Amino acid sequence: MMRRFYQLEQAIREAFLRDAFPEYEDPQLRRIARAVHSLPRFHRQLFCLVRYENWSYDEIAARFDISVRRVEIEMGRTFFMLSQSLDRQKRKGW
């Protein structure tokens, strides 16, 4: 049920971001930027902490007061949502 909500929420955000990031000439970079920005806030924070700020799962678990296993699960969901977003955008010709 919750996964369906996240997918719907993300698809709506993507629609608002369709014309965003014109500074990226490469369409794939634009899709990636839209996909990251369309993530729900918590998942976007996780992604940014891991990928851009090089935080470990242990550090993230301590910051959010959750288990390392929960961080692993949520990162898996994050990557799933990103791949779904990229696929959806490509199908729509964005």
Secondary structure elements and pairings:
Elements: H1 2-16, H2 27-38, H3 41-51, H4 57-64, H5 68-92
Helix pairs in contact: 1-2, 1-5, 2-5, 3-5, 4-5
Kindly list the characteristics that best describe this protein.
94 residues; mainly alpha; Arc Repressor Mutant, subunit A; 5 helices; globular
Reading the helices and strands in chain order gives HHHHH
Annotation field: number of helices: 5
Overall geometry comes to: globular
- The CATH homologous superfamily name equals Winged helix-like DNA-binding domain superfamily/Winged helix DNA-binding domain
CATH class bucket: Mainly Alpha
Oligomer: single chain
- Between the first and last Cα atoms, what is the distance in angstroms? 28 Å
What's the alpha carbon Rg, rounded to whole Å? 14 Å
At CATH level 3, the topology is Arc Repressor Mutant, subunit A
Give helix % range.
Answer: over 70%
Largest sheet: none
- Could you tell me the strand content as a percent range? under 5%
- DSSP summary, beta strand count: 0
Counted up, domains total 1
Question: pLDDT below 50 for ≥5 consecutive residues: which ranges?
Answer: none
Written overview of the protein:
α1 (2-16) packs across α2 (27-38), α1 (2-16) crosses α5 and α4 packs across α5. 76% of the residues lie in helices and 0% in strands. 17% of the residues are buried. It is globular, with a radius of gyration of 14 Å. The mean pLDDT is 90. It has one domain (2-92): Winged helix-like DNA-binding domain superfamily/Winged helix DNA-binding domain (Arc Repressor Mutant, subunit A). With 94 residues, it is mainly α. The chain has five helices and no strands. It has helices spanning 2-16, 27-38, 41-51, 57-64, 68-92. Residues 30-77 form the RNA polymerase sigma factor 70 region 4 type domain. Pfam families: Sigma70_r4_2. This is RNA polymerase sigma factor 70 region 4 type 2 domain-containing protein.
